[in-house]
Amino acid sequence: MKWFKQILSMVIALVMTVGMLSGCAGQQGEPKTDDTDQQVSSGGETAENDKQKDNKDKEDSTDKQESNVPDYLNAEGFPIVKEPITMTAMVSKHVSQPSWSEMLVWQEYEKKTGIKIQWQEVTSELTEKRNLALASGEYPDLFYRAGVGDADPLKYGSQGIFIALNDLIDQYAPNFKRVLEENPSAAKAAHTADGNIYSFVQYTDSDPVQINPKLYINKSWLQKVGKEMPKTTDELYEVFKAFKEGDPNGNGKNDEIPWTAQSLGLVMNCLYGAWGLRNRGNDHGSVDMDEETGKLRFIPVQPEYKEMLEYINKLYKEGLLDQEIFTMNVPQLVAKGDQKIVGAFSHTNTQQIGKTGEEYFEGLHEALEGPHGDKLWAKRGNVGARGAFVITDKCKYPEAAVRWIDYFYSEEGGRFVFLGVEGKSYEQKSDGSYEFLDEIVNNIPEGSTFDQAISKYVPYAGGGIPALQKTEYFKGGETHPGSLKAAQNMVPYTPKEIWSKFNFTLDEVDQKAALESDINGYVNQMYPQFIQGKVPFTEWDNYVAEIEKMGLKDYLELYAKGYERYNQ
C-alpha cells in the first residue's frame, strides 16, 4: 500500500497548489469590476439573505406559537375548541333582559364556538356582590360587563387574580390587537401603570353614543310661541320663558315644564361647553385643561363653573327648570311626556320622554354659545368600561376565553353581538344598512319596551358590552333618526382632543380615592344647594377655600402624574 500513500500525497499537494493559484488570480490577474455593480451585487445578496432570514424568523415564530397552542384549542376559526368546554362568568343583568342563557346570541355562539358560558346574573348590588366574590375567593372564570372599576384591573392584576393578557392578546386576539394598534386612546386605556393589560375594554366608535346627552326641544311648542331653535344660552332662556308663559300645550293652564331630565347632571352636561368647560371631553368630569396656562384645572372651583350654576339657579327660581329635578326618575319623566307638559329634556335619545318623543322633539341645531363666546359640546372618549371583560386565575382555558371575546372586536362579531343573527333578528336593507326585523320592532306588546323586545335576541340593554361598537350596527335609541341627527348637529362643536382614561399606580389610586371622597363629596353636596338658593353665591369664596383645604393641590398633582403618563 506504500505506492497508494505516495499517489494520495501527490494529489493533495496538487489540489492545494491549484487552490492557491486560483486565489492569486482572483486578487491580481482578474479584471476589476465596476464598484457600483459590486455594491449592487453585494447588496442584493445581503437583501436576499436578510429576506430569507426574516422569513425564517417568521416561520420560526409561527412554529413556536403553533407549538404553544394547547391541545384542546383550535388556533383560529370556529369552533374555538375541539371538544365542548364550560366557563363561568359574572354579568350584570338589565331589568329588560330575560335570562342570558335564553338570548339568541349566546345560544348561537355556543354552537359556533363549542364554549358554554354559565352566567352568574346579578340584578342588584353589583359592586358589593363582585367585591364579596373577589374577597372570598369564590369568583368565576370571567367577569363580563360586571362593573369592574377603572382601578380594579391593576389592583387585582397585581395580586394575580386577574391574569395578564399581553401575550395571549398577541397570539389569540388579532381583532382586539388591531383596535389597540389603530387607536392610541384605546391602547393607553387598556394598559395599566405597570405596562400590563388585564382587561378587554369597551370600545365605541359612534358619535350618537359618545355625544351624551343631547338637548331636545319641543318643535311644535317653538312654532306656537313664535321662536326659533336657540343658538345661545340667552336665547335658550327666552325660549323657556315663552314656554312657561305662552301656554304652548293649549290647555289654558300654567302647567308647562320648560326643561326637565331624569337627573340634574344631564341638565348640567348640556351647559358645560357654553362656558368652555370639559374641553377635553366627559371622561374626566371634574378636570380639564386651562387653555391659557396649559395646566390642569379643577372645574368645580372655576369662575366659569360658578357662572353656569348662577344660570341654572336663575332657570330654577323662575320655574323654567323642573322643580322636581333633584328627585326625578325615568317613570316620572315619561309620565310628564305623556301629559304633554314638557318643553325640553336632556338625554341620549328621544325615546326617553315616551312614545311621542321622536314625533315632537328635535335636537339643537348647533351647540349653545355662552356669555364669553364659548361654543363647545363635550363628548365621551372611545373607551367606555376599562374592565369590561377580565379573565381570572380560576379559568382553566384562558386561551379559549381570549379567542371567545376577541370575535366581538371584529366587524362581523360586532354585528353579531349587537344585532344577532341575520334573518332571525335583523336584516340588511337594499341601501346596505342593518335593521332589526319589522316583526320584532313593530309588534312590541302593550306595556313592554323596545329594550325588552330586542333583549330576547341581543344583550346590549344596559350598555357596557365588551366589543367594537359602531353606529352602523348599534341600533339602540341613540341611533334612531331624531337622536342620530341631534348627534350629527353637535359633531362640529366637540373638542378636538378627547382624553381617554389616565393610568395611576396603586399608591396613586389610594391617595386619589381618599382625596376624591372628601372633595367630590363636598362638591356634590354643594352645587344643588347653590342652584336651589339654599346657599347664596356670596358663599362661593368660602366654598372654594374649603375645597382647597381638603387637598385640592395634592389632588391636581396626582392627576398631573396620570396625565404625564398618558402622554408618554
Describe it:
This protein is α/β, with parallel strands linked by helices. The chain folds into 2 domains: 85-208 and 383-472, 3-Layer(aba) Sandwich (D-Maltodextrin-Binding Protein, domain 2); 213-378 and 497-566, Periplasmic binding protein-like II (D-Maltodextrin-Binding Protein, domain 2). 46% of the residues lie in helices and 11% in strands. It is built from 23 helices and 14 strands. It has helices at residues 2-29, 35-68, 104-113, 126-136, 152-158, 166-172, 174-182, 184-190, 207-210, 219-225, 233-245, 264-269, 303-317, 330-338, 357-360, 398-406, 411-419, 438-441, 450-454, 481-490, 506-532, 540-549, 552-566; strands at residues 85-92, 115-122, 142-148, 203-205, 214-218, 260-261, 287-290, 295-298, 344-347, 361-363, 387-391, 426-428, 434-436, 468-470. A hairpin with a 5-residue loop joins strand 12 and strand 13. Helix 7 packs across helix 8, helix 13 (303-317) packs parallel to helix 21 (506-532) and helix 21 (506-532) crosses helix 23 (552-566). The longest helix has 34 residues, at 35-68. The protein is globular. The N and C termini lie far apart (80 Å). Residues 1-47 have low confidence and may be disordered.
